[in-house]
Amino acid sequence: MSGIYIHIPFCRQACYYCDFHFSVSWKRKDDFVQALLKEIELQKNFLANEKISSVYFGGGTPSILSADELKKILFTLSKYHSIADDAEMTLEANPDDLTKEKIKDIGETGINRLSIGIQSFSDEDLKFMNRVHDSKQAIESVKSAQDAGFRNITIDLIYGTPTLADEQWVKNLEQAFALDVPHLSCYALTVETQTALAQFIKKGKVAPVDEAKAAAQFEILMKRSSQKGFEQYEVSNFAKAQMYSRHNSSYWRNEKYLGLGPSAHSYNGVSRQWNVANNHLYIEAINKGSVPFEEEILTAVQKYNEYVLTSLRTRWGCDVMKIKNEFGEKFGEYFSKTADDFIRQQWMENRDRVYVLTHKGKFFADRISSDLFYSED
Question: What integer pLDDT is reported at residue 344 of this predicted model?
């Protein structure tokens, strides 16, 4: 089964750390929605009639869309795709958008899962990140969604920020647990080159990210979440039993997906393509009947490297037999040989030819993956 990702490229204001494609000008929002509906039609054959198990509205801030706009998009998807009756339908939402009335309207669209971008329950931290909402709105948004009948809720949290002490990070986690949400996505603050945060650090206005502090807070996260019955099924994702994100799991399991909207990526097992990251160019091209994307046909090396990168971050790990069967014997031998060093360091375990990260290894997931990559040279 496959998934569909829809990128909504608008926000109320720019978070200092974010490098996703978005605009704070909503002048062409209506034009964008019409173009998106057209792109759904233009891309109807990309997934070759596969059953759709998940639809994910990301951004940007998808919760700025009205219920009518969401209904139009979902209706158009259903015209051109076979969507499973039990499909996971996720909407990313900011707490400041989630009024009781808005939540009720969302619940009537077919959306059955909310991903709420809380980031922190500390007002000081939220101000540092330039978030629109405050901690009170964060708590109220989750409670209001639950009162409206939403049970499948995930919240995002960020750790490692200069304003976040270990004690406050513990409080953030305890607040999340107290809200009884079944899924958490927790990310270390990263400094992307083109962001306001990068410029603040460069100019000395903000202290650089403290990697030791982030590692300590990651340790707290793993320990506390485990104690509360959460499974760390991916390095940054924690869920109660049977509450994994179906959509994100499809990425990590190398399943096919269609990306719609400016900057969205698509993958069909053979090639990868990505739409232009420009709202104006996207709208104009779609209005002329063409999807503005670039494409690459994936080599065996690229497929192997991507499998290593995504699967090693999960509890399911890297299967050497899958590597040999799908990418070639040489890749399996290279992986096993290189992985032996990490096993000796106790960063990985070999469980009947399936390699998984240890607790210690999760701190070095990106480094381990890059060392396991196979070079084209």
Answer: 97
